[in-house]
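Researcher: Good morning. I'm working through a list of sequences from a screen, and I'd like to move beyond sequence-only analysis. For each chain I'm collecting a predicted structure so we can compare shapes side by side. This is the next one on the list. No need for commentary yet; just the structure.
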Amino acid sequence: MNKKDLADIRKEFKLGAYMLPIKEVYSVYLKKDNGEIITRELNHFEMMDIEKQELYLENFKKILTGTLDSKIFELDFKNKTTIEQLDNNDDLEVEDGQEEDIDSTQQILYKALNENNESIAAYADKVVDKIAENYTYETDVVINFLRAEYYKGNKKKSMEAEESIDDFMQSIEFLLCSVNKVDVPKKALKLDYSDLTFKPNSALDMIINLKSPLDGFMFPSISAEYTDVNKAVYYSSKAKQMNSVFVEEVLGCNVKATAIEEKETFHAILNTVVGDSIKPDTMQEIYERMNEKLEMEEEIEDDEEPTVDMKEVEEVLKESGIENTEVVKSAFEELCGSDYEFKVKNIVPDFKSKSIKIENENTNITITPRDLSSIKQIKDKRGRKCLLIELNEDVQINGFKLETEEVDYI
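Model: Good morning. C-alpha cells for this chain:
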C-alpha cells in the first residue's frame, strides 16, 4: 500500500460517497481499570442522523491520514496464511518458536468480512477482548469498528484504442478500527434551552475524542491491483513511534522499523564502512545513485515501493568510490539482518528541498543533496578549520550582500 492508494480511499470518506458505501458501525465503551464493557452500539450507517455520520467519517478518516512509516505502517501478520486456509480454518504455517493461534486476529477479521449473514459485532468483540487482555490505556476508551465496501475503478490502456477505458470495477470489502480516548468534561455552567435556565453540566456526559485516535488499523491492505489478507495497515497517534503491544499482541503483526529508524540504521551501516568521516562529494554520489531508484519509480508510475538490499548497497558504495565494502555484510547482519531491505525513500534525503543539514555549535546551514559536492571542510595555513562553500552568486545576510575578499592564506 502506498500513499496514492491511501489518498484514493481517504478522499471517499464523505457524506453520500458513491464509491465507498458504509454498511455498519459498531462501538464499544471499555473501562480502563477493569476492562469492563459498559455498553455496545451497532448501527447501520445510513440509519444514523447526518451529524453522527459526519463524526464517524472524520474519526475513521484519521486512521488513513499521515505519513507512511511515520504514522501509518503496512504490517505483516506473523503467520503465513492462504485464502484457502482462512476459508477452511486449516492449520496456519507457523514461524519457528511460535505457537499456533487458532483464533488469531487475522482469522477473526477475515471471518467478519466473509460471513455475509452476520454483523461484525460478534467478531469485533473478540478484538475488544484482545485489547482488554493485553493493553491498558490511561483513560477509558471507545473502540469503533466500520465495515465498508470500496469500489475501485481500474483503468488499463487499450492496445487498439488511443484512450484509456474502464475495464472493470473492483469491489473490495474492508474493516477499519479506531481506539479513542474518553475525556471527562470539566465542570461548567450551561444554558438548558428546554426551560431557558442555567445549570451545571453533568459529569456523566463523557466526551469521546474522535479527532485524535490513540490506535487504529485497516484490514486487509489494499493496493492498486489487489488486496492482501496477510497484511494490515496500522495507525499510530505518535509520529515515528508504534504501540508495540497493540501491534504484536492485539493485531498479531510483526513490528516494523519506522522511517527514522531505517535512516538511523542505514547511517550506522555507512559509519561502519567508511568510518567517522566522509567527503561531501562521496556522500552526494551515494545519495544520487540511491535516488535514481525513486526517479525511475516516478517515471514508470510503479506501485511497488523501491527498496535496496545488502548486495545493492554494497554495489552503490563501490560505484561511489568506497573500497572497504567487504564489511557491508557483517554490518547488515549485526544491525538489521542480511536479508533486510531498506525503503529508498526512508534513507535518501529529499532531492527537491534543502534536506541536508550542515551544523556544529556555531553553524547551521541547509542545502540540497545535489549541492554537497560544492562544500568542503578545510584547514588553512594557520591550522584553523574552515567550511568552504562554492557559490554561484553573492550571499545575502539580512538583506545585505557580503563583500568579496581575496585571501592568500588558504
